[in-house]
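Pilot study result, target chain (293 residues):
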Amino acid sequence: MSLFEYALVGGILYGIFFSLIAIGLNLVFGVMRMINLAHGQFVVLGGLGASVLVEHLHLNPLFGIPLAVAGAIVIGYPLYYAVVPRLQQSRDPEMLSFILFFGVAQIIDAVSIMAFGPDQRSLPGAALGSGSISVLGQAFPDSWWVAALVSVLAIVGLYLYFARTKLGYATRAIMADRDEARATGINVNRVSALAFVIGLALAGIAGVFVPYLLGSVSPSDGNSFTITSFAIVIIGSLGNPLGTIVGGLVFGLGTMMMQTYYASWSNLVPYALLLLIVLIRPSGLLGKAVRHA
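Predicted structure:
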């Protein structure tokens, strides 16, 4: 029974964290109708940025959070205005976006390896607390709880943006129907650019905690994060941020259950869940609810 409780609590913490990793990808798709294949690379940049803060400036890795937000602004706005408006005017923006963001991912991979080296980087566990917190008799390190807390705060912040701000209302209108939103006078490009930057910032913030949840981060991890994020988004519902939270929890619980009982099969969890959802419920676990909202 203790193994099940360990997998249950660990799976929830793991799932909350991966919800944060994936929710930015879903936000960008919901607004722009494009899959950002460089999403995982921005997760990695968040982790590498945190390692620089700790190793070279001797700062707490939590300072990586504002650094991730600043990096998303500096990189996101120029990247968006340089390529996305032109893609939107093309005949097949979805396919072209695959090619373009794949290229961006390869560039980030190459630059990251040149700047940081190919080796994996870890962070001192004591930086986020040297103790542990027990739930249901199962102890998990402080860093896992801090990662889950920051993930919840970031997701709540995104919810408040959607529910309490004019830009959030405009974002939801664009997600519902881009052309109608433009017809009502919404500056679609301005709002989409902001959503793109928010998506990158959320990815970067999640990246700060990757070394704690996964043990290390390296410049070559980006594609893996993109694939896992995509699986989580499909499991929940493509274009629905709430579905990403559900998808993340399903992924987290499934992964921890497999790691606990059949560790050698755990890497197959995202792909097995993705295949299962596509076969049984192609619109995702919350897809139908979104369609009738």
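One observation from the pilot: The chain has one domain: 1-115+142-280. A full batch analysis is planned for the follow-on phase.
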